[in-house]
Amino acid sequence: MKQERRLRILIAKPGLDGHDRGARVIARAFRDAGFEVVYTGCHQTPEQIVSTAIQEDVDMVGLSILSGAHTYSFPRIMELLRENQAQDITVIGGGIFPLEDIPKLKSIGIKEIFEPGAKLQEIIGWVRANVKPRRALTA
Amino acid sequence: MNIIDQVLAGEVRATARLLRDIDDQVESVQSILKALYPHTGRAYVVGFTGSPGVGKSTLVDQLALKYRREDKTVGILAVDPTSPFSGGAILGDRIRMQRHFLDSGVFIRSLATRGHFGGLTRSTNDMINVLDAMGKDVILVETVGVGQDEVEIAHSAHTTIVVTIPGMGDEIQAIKAGIMEIGSIFVVNKADREGSRKTVREIRNLIDLGMRRREENGGWEPLIVETEAVKGRGIEELHQAIEKHKTYLFSNDKGQLDDVLRKRATNQLVETLKDEAFKTIMARLQVRGVTIETLVQKVLEKETDPSSLVQRILGEELR
Ligand SMILES: Nc1nc2c(ncn2[C@@H]2O[C@H](COP(=O)(O)OP(=O)(O)OP(=O)(O)O)[C@@H](O)[C@H]2O)c(=O)[nH]1
Ligand SMILES: [Mg+2]
User: Fold this and answer.
1) Other beta carbons within 10 Å of A117
2) Which residues lie below 8 Å from residue B174, measured CB to CB, with a gap of 6+?
């Protein structure tokens, strides 16, 4: 009766805008896809997000952005993950981004960016294909 | 450094990954738990149970703050239900605990009930031991107050807090058999709402009704505390109530602490035995292509009944 390894995902919302409907929708969609979703609410600083990602041992962090906070928070999150030897955690972003920023974000290691038109099934499909539960530490 | 030393040194990433392996019931985790076991027994464990939304996470957040002001380190385990439809879960208890995210003296871990056949109590026990070995002074465990597993988790705690809200007094007994027996402290949270005093009286009555049994059990008379967790009101009183219970446990003249430790050890042993026995038998059946679903089908079709089927399986497997 071995338990299969379950995908663990952190959905976080950096930045100052207080509205997290998008993040909640994606959290529910991920739950319904069979993932375990740690949800932490609004106004998260990069430091809080990375600390949570590590304590919760998630395989992926999904960052939901509305207000252009990504130019600061995304690079900072990637930097903090590196500092903590946690680069193996996949990071994706969802929300509104100026088109010209997307290549920049990918160049710092954000694996994928989903814009507001993206279908939930498309995002789930991407996660299934690209994120695997971390190998057991003790195996 | 190996994983055992890393956990003992309080390293966060290593500990977090070990907890994952416990959660996923990775076989090889056993040898590590074995090595850590001698380093457990220092932490004080407080369990919180109660219906969804009564304010458990908010209380845990406030108490953690209180303990941090006393310079005690805190481990938090927060359990949320797994969706029976998808097997996924939303683990949202952290929303109430944001102020602790950057405090290296607080380690928070969310976990899902997963609804596997038992096993939650066992993995929670193992995780408590890891946080204990990691050096946390106080471990706060929040469970969903719905299943039997949650009642059992009370046996893992030194102090068990049953959280209710105004209007729930009469219900608590009906909700779950055993809930009155497990509470060392009853909290009526959301005391800003109407009916708080009445709920306190109702709980008091239920406690008085059960007092005879309690006397046989060493005589702790459960305390009732009213709180308004969002505003931090009543947290001081709750903290004092926990201290009182702790003092009672450690006042060693009646062996109360021995009782708690014995219960914890019994619970850990029994849960582990149940879990391992179940897994071992299922694994052996699996070899012959028999799964839990196959067995359920036999019962559903009234080919046999559960007891006879189990007797037969045990007869075949335990020789
Ligand atoms: N009015 C009032 N609301 C409160 C109080 N304490 C908590 N709440 C609110 O109650 C809601 C649920 O609080 P939580 O702490 O998440 O409750 P919980 O028991 O952990 O919930 P689950 O983990 O979902 O079972 C939140 O909106 C809190 O802000 C209180 O003392 N008074
Ligand atoms: Mg909660």
Assistant:
1) 6
2) none
Confidence of residue B213 (pLDDT cuts 50, 70, 90): low
pTM here is 0.90
Contacts of B92 (CB under 8 A, 6+ apart): A39, B80
The answer on pLDDT for A138 being more than 80 is: no
Shared domain check, B211 and B131: yes
ipTM: 0.94
- Would you state the pLDDT for residue B170? 66
Q: Is residue B22 part of a domain?
A: no
Test mutation, A36, A59, A60, chain B, max B CBs within 10 A: A36
- Same structural domain, B78 and B223: yes
Longest dimension (CA), chain B: 62
Residue A36: beta bridge partners? A8, B89
Are B220 and B310 found together in one domain?
no
Q: Quick one: CATH architecture of A8-128?
A: 3-Layer(aba) Sandwich (3.40)
Partners of residue B279 in chain A, C-beta under 8 Å: 1-2
| Nearest Cβ partner for B101 among A5, A6, A52 | A52
In this prediction, residues B180-202 reach a mean pLDDT of: 92
Residues of B within 8 A of A57 (CB-CB) are: 16-17, 19-20
- pLDDT tens digits along B158-178: 999 999 999 887 666 655 556
